[in-house]
């Protein structure tokens, strides 16, 4: 079902953000996680391992908040806590091996659908869209790090 034309420029960012969050919430619920926990897991898998304090900074939470997220992810078997081999006094968290099939399927379908949308644009338009989205990701990550710095 197409919703083209229903979104105004004024609300487009909010509409996009809402749709993304709700998609992640629905996907996360399939494996018993919240959307925030799922995105944290994805960050750990892509860029980890992290110490709890570094993870807290990256996700914009206090150390206690990050510790709660880590505990939930560990209880579900999504992450593993280990002794940091470079500093045996501290622990690190890394993603557990293997991806949940329910998540892999959901994100594969999403990727295919989004790939179909981007294919409707010419090469120059695709480059502009990808540039815009990459810059938005950078801005959002910078703003999240600011929350992480403020939480200390």
UniProtKB/TrEMBL annotation:
InterPro entries: HTH_MarR-typ (IPR000835), MarR/SlyA-like (IPR039422), WH-like_DNA-bd_sf (IPR036388), WH_DNA-bd_sf (IPR036390). Residues 9-138 form the HTH marR-type domain. Pfam families: MarR_2. This is MarR family transcriptional regulator. It comes from Actinoplanes oblitus.
